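ok so heres the complex, four chains, lmk if somethin looks off
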Amino acid sequence: MNTLGNIFRITSFGESHGKAVGVVIDGCPPLLEINIDFIQHQLNKRRPGQSELTTARNEEDKLEIISGVFEGVSTGAPIMLLIQNKDSNSDDYHSLKEVYRPSHADYTYQQKYGIRDHRGGGRSSARITAGWVAAGAIAKLILNIQKISVTAYVKQIHKIALEIPYDQIDLSLIESNPVRCPNPETAERMIQEIFKAKNEGDSLGGIISCLIQNCPVGVGEPVFDKLNAKLSHAIMSINAVKGIQFGDGFNSINFKGSELNDALTLDNSGNIKTLSNHSGGIQGGISNGEAIYFETAFKPTATIGKEQKTVDTKGNETILSAKGRHDPCVLPRAVPIVEAMAACVIADLILAQKAYSL
Amino acid sequence: MNTLGNIFRITSFGESHGKAVGVVIDGCPPLLEINIDFIQHQLNKRRPGQSELTTARNEEDKLEIISGVFEGVSTGAPIMLLIQNKDSNSDDYHSLKEVYRPSHADYTYQQKYGIRDHRGGGRSSARITAGWVAAGAIAKLILNIQKISVTAYVKQIHKIALEIPYDQIDLSLIESNPVRCPNPETAERMIQEIFKAKNEGDSLGGIISCLIQNCPVGVGEPVFDKLNAKLSHAIMSINAVKGIQFGDGFNSINFKGSELNDALTLDNSGNIKTLSNHSGGIQGGISNGEAIYFETAFKPTATIGKEQKTVDTKGNETILSAKGRHDPCVLPRAVPIVEAMAACVIADLILAQKAYSL
Amino acid sequence: MNTLGNIFRITSFGESHGKAVGVVIDGCPPLLEINIDFIQHQLNKRRPGQSELTTARNEEDKLEIISGVFEGVSTGAPIMLLIQNKDSNSDDYHSLKEVYRPSHADYTYQQKYGIRDHRGGGRSSARITAGWVAAGAIAKLILNIQKISVTAYVKQIHKIALEIPYDQIDLSLIESNPVRCPNPETAERMIQEIFKAKNEGDSLGGIISCLIQNCPVGVGEPVFDKLNAKLSHAIMSINAVKGIQFGDGFNSINFKGSELNDALTLDNSGNIKTLSNHSGGIQGGISNGEAIYFETAFKPTATIGKEQKTVDTKGNETILSAKGRHDPCVLPRAVPIVEAMAACVIADLILAQKAYSL
Amino acid sequence: MNTLGNIFRITSFGESHGKAVGVVIDGCPPLLEINIDFIQHQLNKRRPGQSELTTARNEEDKLEIISGVFEGVSTGAPIMLLIQNKDSNSDDYHSLKEVYRPSHADYTYQQKYGIRDHRGGGRSSARITAGWVAAGAIAKLILNIQKISVTAYVKQIHKIALEIPYDQIDLSLIESNPVRCPNPETAERMIQEIFKAKNEGDSLGGIISCLIQNCPVGVGEPVFDKLNAKLSHAIMSINAVKGIQFGDGFNSINFKGSELNDALTLDNSGNIKTLSNHSGGIQGGISNGEAIYFETAFKPTATIGKEQKTVDTKGNETILSAKGRHDPCVLPRAVPIVEAMAACVIADLILAQKAYSL
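and the predicted structre for the whole thing:
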């Protein structure tokens, strides 16, 4: 299934080295102002070649709106967003046609489908997330109307972590550096670590944090479209993600119920608030009005320059020394992808909540 | 949405203190032998009152098959499984009608729906997972045909962890103790820890590990029905789950690509295998033939005996001292739930893989 | 798939001679007053044994609400409605275990599933529509809030037709006779025709008309959830239906565009209306504010007393002389089923229209 | 919803005068040989400007495959098919910006969405069916493997009908004339009738018959994905369709059960067959191995040259005299559309049947 969502539905298509990647958005409400610059801006944050930290593949990633928008606003018809592949250099990948890269999807695609488009990873490439980011930008335009924001940042690269809690972070600093860590000093150390790995022909993973602010109470559809379940589904769809946790997540187990429960209280206006937010803004699969917070673990990029043991398509053991252009660390470019997927989920559930009313 | 799955679809219904809980399974292949004892056995593992570690609510949880089975086998028609509520004692919950329990779904349900069935948590109660476990048992019967097994166990309770890797564990020991940890010594310490928390009127969380063995290569549908994405969706639907990670998960970030990649090799029969399994058996959202492994974090039970600050439904701050029957630690009873959800996902994707063929 | 609808979703289960039939309704908005008498009243109209025109099977069809309703209103949780089978007499069907009834689903179910529950037709029996009627009653309660009505009646039995156009009919007369034709004189002739067929061991088909009044403009989701497409899907799900037509339907082809187009005009209040309603209230798959009108063709009941050539399950030609209890003409009892399916579709689309808004 | 199907899913996008129309096909099995000439050939049958019977809009309708095909075969990834709009002349439609055409979707779209792309009908134009025909061609390639054929033809234009039953027709004659009626003499009369209407500034409707041959027993998923229900849904999605009937359809009611039942017998090879096919090849929503046959009623084209009373967008009554290019009778070009939608449904259900097996 290449479709995600029930009301706000995105259908993804395209391959790394095919003609284009893109997305069809179905269920976007009509009369939404489609700010093309905003969408392109989101795409630019994911664009390869944006800094020395990323792959050398140079794609302009220029957005084309093929349908669903008329005189600057959505019409209620499907919005098709297309991003052409311009700098796909399949020659780099020719040598990969007959070898399975370790910890890549080469072998699993071949076994599942009996065929694989080996050029740049084909359908399994993260290049297809360009379409997702474009869709997420439309979702953000919907959320903007209600002042809901979705903001992700790099919290950890390999062993270099930003130890400041999400609610003490200056989010305006995220875009101040190419690694998208909202702390210039930590960012600088992360950048050095990435360059070091790059020079070693190696790769690094890390953690991206995501914060959804101003989401109203009541978003999320029990029992199988819980807000955290749908966010997990969408985030786990991103290449290289190996884990997700909400609020205190795995660290929750180090506390007892009496320590971890988020006591309810009243704010000055008499509104119900929690005294803490260990749960990450979700109770019973439904937003509780507090900040929604989750963290995502990305494994190190599977493509590395170093030699690796592997097997070729004819069933012989061999040694792989990867060429091709790739990111030594995907996290900086994954920040807009995490935001996009989260925004799509929230938009979907916000619209669902409208439906279920008399 | 109370339906999960595309091909093998389960639709959940029921409340904690209503007449019954249950599930409709649609898409179960015909001619499956429906072993009622096996299903009941799975239900018994989730049953309240099974040991002193669990809630005192005493439900027999007797399975009734209402439809879809004829002369002992499935017919291809929907299988409706019903479990009556017998020992619901709503009086215990009367005092909760007008108060919101911290870190429970009371407040979010009320805000979302404008009404809530407060009796035992209503729809938000984990009691509804009885239906899921019954559905998971049917899924396991499907998987049994291909010798695929789904096995979960308690890996950690609060700070007491089983440090043995999954592939060195004697799974036959899981049911040897009421806490379902496959190491008697660690289990005993966990049990003591739970009793201690119970006596303090407190609660504990922990980690459940899940292992899926003998799953063939090729299961999982990119890009939005990836095996890990669908497993995350299903597992995150379980009450109290705050995180999920596959393979090395969050620990992946402590390694470089050259250390974490699972090199490919050939086994003695010439079949492709990996030398390690840091990825947890999934590449590109598709099973690679290795053991599928994931871990799930459960927060401590939100219901505790200790006094807590909270707010009542009239908007006054108050102190809650919970009565009602509850588990000081849900993990022992959550083991069959994790297995059930995982089994439903695998069965769904195994059937999907059959569909997409010429 | 035993689920119908996107927002207001019904999942059907049960067999003719199993323990029960029923339905799970997911997506019913919360706070809907659940009038049990109203639901039971709809069920009574479908109930077997209600008049001498129908099968002798005597089922009370007593509604049980198992979940989703608390203190008289819907909670937003799935509503499970159960109707027990009390008077299933499987002995009558014993002789049918090894023979395929002509124009029944016996042979196709056997071939598709490799097994069939032969007792009373099993899953292929129209008995399962009892659950649909109950679900349709809930849908009607939703529509009632907006004063939308769904009314079906028998327009034709075999060659006896009510020639009066839908907009000149006194709908209050529908329930004045057991055949549910809103013209006492025509009804009487229909009744006689049915008795005649019954006495001959034969069966009759006919046409049911359905009228949806007061539906607002804008209901229906192009391009694949068009109002007429979804209505057709739902109505074609009813046993014995062989055709459906909207507005002038097949008769449209006898007119030219200039004759058939529904010219637009203004009513006294300045609202846009059409001067005619050849289109049956739908343009481009969306309601236009006029009465929605469609007709449905039911073939004669396949079960007849007369001898028929057929084949048994061992592959021998044989002669069938059906026993069992059956209706000589299903139309009187199909009237509430048509209404129910139409109501479910309209409710689903009314809720969808709420979702797609900023 | 702009997506149709469960396993073989098509997602439609595009507008009449936008940049392009197209479709994303998800769920196409891998390793299907994608014969581009075949797809283009199907598109050519729907292409405007193919004969003097059709609109003067001249579109080459050249197929572009954007994704999902590698080295001539499907890869299992979504297949995106694009058809650019080249000859959209929006000037013709400028005068329609502020007027609602009778029996068109202008008014309903405006009311539903609060906006409409008036150029050539925007999303409500039958131009978008070009994408459907392309998708249907892929579906036919799947069906070809099992030798299943889907063949439609014009059976009636206005009052000129081909009275020969489907099983006595020489299907090879369908493409022998521009009206696609498999009887040259009747075709000639139809053509004259269409020219006459065209000259009068008027339009005609008619009936398209569709025949699905060699479909195996067992296709169709009770109870809500019945073969006839899904076919009806898909066919009713086509512009201008007002009715559908299977087998004897509405004419069934003129017969008694004893006359209409399809008696079962054995053929020379001992296989079960029916002696007649009044049911149109479907019993209980499942194919029975006989020819599947249905008829579809198309109303006359709503766009006519003659003057019509209508209302403008400012709410004034006015007289419309339509310009723009349009077909006086859509049936010849609708033949490939009917085939395409039927092929998509059959392919979807054929794949579903594979899934539901142990």
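quick notes: Residues 226 and 304 of chain D are 37 Å apart (CA to CA). thats all i got rn
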